[in-house]
Design brief:
The complex is a heterodimer of chains A (279) and B (135).
Chain A (H helix, E strand, L loop, with lengths): L1 H13 L5 E7 L6 E6 L30 E6 H12 L8 E6 L14 H4 L11 E3 L12 H7 L3 H14 L5 H5 L24 H15 L8 H5 L7 H15 L27
Parallel strand pairs in A: 1-3, 3-4, 4-5
Antiparallel strand pairs in A: 1-2
Helix pairs in contact in A: 5-7
Chain B lengths: L1 H5 L3 E6 L3 H10 L8 E6 L7 H9 L4 E6 L10 H18 L7 E5 L5 H21 L1
Parallel strand pairs in B: 1-2, 1-3, 3-4
Helix pairs in contact in B: 2-5
Classes of the chains: A alpha/beta (279), B alpha/beta (135).
The structure holds iron/sulfur cluster (2 copies).
């Protein structure tokens, strides 16, 4: 499979169809991989794909805006690429999507498969320009059981839960920085005039940061788990991103990155939208 | 001082063209409503940045009301249609973070509906008070 992947990329680079290819390479040990940026057709031998390729390389689209790119994508990462194209952050012509069939990726800390892989319906990537390998999709759709369970708590319990969690947060911004749809060069968290967010790191300010960030990625977040995986203090960000996915689906029947022709839910409206809760 | 601490604070974001004028009308018509609402005028509910609502709760507001023109009557034609999408999502997200549903409301009040504005504020006040008293 690696060979096939390398050959495709080699050809693309040799024929100057792309300036850069972004894939995975082995990092410091057997269980670690990292993004690899390849420019030279003779340098493709280091590209690999395995179950530790956890990064969502769609992240780099907004960082290489002026280049033609080939990007190695798991089925789930393709949603990110499509979402960014929809948001006009990158043009479809400038990106060659190389889909890799995936059996699910593992968190190397725990050795367990990521939760998102359990009911994955894109193990066989969809919408890619090239596809390497064949994967078997899950029959069951994504479920929101943990979110539904959490929603049963009272608002007081919810607030207490998050306050506890955000006491741990060191506001390293890793979650924001790895998020492919958090691409604003002028993030509200950095702004000083006006200062939306106090630069003090305490539970309340941390919570404010997360509330605003979650609002900003609503209907755009593909629930890729990059933020959840990056967090050094294990804050269950997945409980937030899954909530976003659930709401987008339930309120607006929207799934991020799924359909190229449908606009993100907050970028549009329908005159027949519900207003049951408006006084 | 004691009573001041317990006082309920509601931030009202009212659109310039309908609800703000509606609130004026309420006063003109001598309608009585809870004075706990502090009004901030916004150009349109379409301009209602969710960030400001989140900030209001963060800074200690007990409740927030956003009010604009009825659908179809927006001064900018479609601002309130965008708002109508942001509202349910934001309410649900805030609830997920532990901001009780009773604390956040939206309404349509036109410039002539002074009476309705008083009713809306009473309703919002009752909900926020219920949350504050009963948790
Ligand atoms: S990655 Fe974790 S610790 Fe860092 S800012 Fe995000 S939630 Fe906080
Ligand atoms: S799961 Fe996290 S990193 Fe991925 S798109 Fe959503 S917010 Fe961004």
């Amino acid at each position: 499979m690696d060979k096939e992947l390398q050959e495709i990329i080699k050809k693309l680079l040799a024929e100057k169809k792309v300036d850069w290819a972004i894939g995975y390479e082995k990092a410091y040990d057997e269980l670690s991989t990292r993004p690899a940026f390849v420019q030279d057709a003779n340098d493709t031998a280091r590209l690999i794909f395995n179950k530790y390729c956890i990064n969502n390389l769609g992240l780099y689209l907004t960082k290489f805006k002026k280049n033609k790119l080939a990007v190695v994508c798991k089925g789930c990462d393709i949603a990110t690429v499509f979402e960014l194209i929809k948001e006009k952050q990158f043009s479809r012509e400038n990106v060659v999507v190389i889909g890799v069939a995936c059996e699910g990726v593992l968190d190397k800390k725990t050795g367990k498969q990521l939760e998102k892989c359990e009911n994955c319906r894109v193990k066989q990537p969809k919408g890619a320009d090239f596809t390497v390998g064949t994967g078997k999709d899950s029959a069951a759709p994504k479920n929101f059981l943990d979110v539904v369970e959490f929603e049963k708590k009272s608002s007081k319990e919810k607030a207490e839960f998050w306050n506890r969690q955000f006491e741990k947060c060191i506001r390293c911004y890793a979650c924001r920085n790895v998020c492919p749809v958090c691409y604003c060069p002028d993030c509200f968290a950095n702004r000083t005039m006006p200062e939306y967010l106090n630069k003090n790191v305490d539970a309340e300010e941390n919570k404010l940061f997360h509330m605003i960030r979650m609002q900003h990625v609503f209907g755009r977040c593909t629930d890729c788990k990059a933020c959840d995986t990056a967090c050094p203090v294990n804050i269950p960000l997945t409980l937030l991103t899954k909530k976003l996915a659930k709401d987008a689906k339930e309120l607006f029947n929207y799934e991020s990155g799924a359909d190229m022709d449908v606009l993100p839910p907050l970028s549009t409206y329908n005159e027949a939208d519900s207003e049951s809760d408006i006084l | 001082m004691e009573s001041k601490v317990k006082e309920i604070n509601i931030v009202g974001f009212l659109c310039n063209w309908c609800s703000y004028a509606g609130a004026d009308m309420t006063g003109l018509g001598r309608n009585i409503y809870p004075s706990n609402i502090k009004v901030i005028r916004i150009p349109c509910t379409g301009r209602m940045d969710p960030m400001m609502i989140i900030e209001a709760f963060h800074n200690g507001a007990d409740g927030v009301l956003v009010s604009g023109c009825h659908p179809g009557d927006c001064h900018y034609t479609e601002g309130n249609f965008y708002w109508r999408r942001r509202y349910p999502h934001l309410k649900s997200l805030l609830e997920h973070f532990g901001v009780d549903r009773r604390r956040f409301h939206a309404s349509w009040v036109s410039a002539s509906e002074g009476k309705k504005f008083a009713e809306v504020v009473k309703k919002v006040y009752a909900e926020v008070k219920d949350w504050k008293d009963n948790g």
